[in-house]
Amino acid sequence: MFIKLAVKNTLLKKLFVCSLLALVSACSSMSSTPRVSANSADRWAVLPINNLSVTAQADAQAQTLVETHLRARGVSAIDTYAPIRQVSLRDLLDPATEMNSAIEWAQRSGFRYGITGSVNEWHYKSGADKEPSVGMSLKLVDIYTRDVLWQGNASRTGWGYANLSAVADDVIRELLEEVQLRASTP
Fold first, then answer.
1. Chain mean position to CA 162
2. Distance CA 29, CA 155 (A)
3. 12 vs 17: CA distance, rounded Å
4. Percent of the chain at pLDDT above 90?
């Protein structure tokens, strides 16, 4: 009798853990190209992040979080592309123009790596629980060659008690963990 109860409890525990993992993993997803290694001692530029979400300034919030995570992981020579802009309809409809300007700025300034991407979702969902939801992509670009060295997409929905900035922070941290930083002198 005791053995049957112990087996039953073990089975119930495993079922509970599997159910919990399935529930948690259903709230987030991520895909990326293979991990890449980059030198944290080189100069890094946070390039424009395209805001495709309905939330104003989500791109600026994402840029700040990206810069913070890179600094926390040992990148000290980092700057964000932030020119004084005259916004035209052409620039709004063609983000490639701004990206070309940003990469030219980074090349002139001697940066080695650039981080760019897009914010696809950045809001609280409607409904009773108002869960925060973030979806975005990031790219690591070689400034000299303009080659994409790494690219990843991630999305996450928090629980009703979570806040949007914490969910966004988790998404960006998870994405940037795919870029292995090595500390060697340039």
1. 18
2. 5
3. 9
4. 68
Percent residues over pLDDT 70 in the chain: 80
Provide the pLDDT confidence category of residue 22 given band limits of 50, 70 and 90: very low
Cα–Cα distance for residue pair 18/78, rounded to 1 Å: 42
Tokens representing 51? Answer: 């805001």
Cβ atoms 66, 115 nearer than 8 A: yes
- Structure tokens of 160? 């009703």
Query: What are the DSSP E strand ranges found in 23-74?
Result: 28-32, 36-39, 44-51
| Count of residues in the chain | 186
Averaged over 111-125, what is the pLDDT?
Answer: 96
pLDDT surpasses 50 at 20: no
pLDDT for position 87 = 63
CA 129/CA 133 separation, integer angstroms: 12
Dig out the tokens for 29 from the structure: 């997803």
CATH (residue range 29-182)? 3.40.50.10610
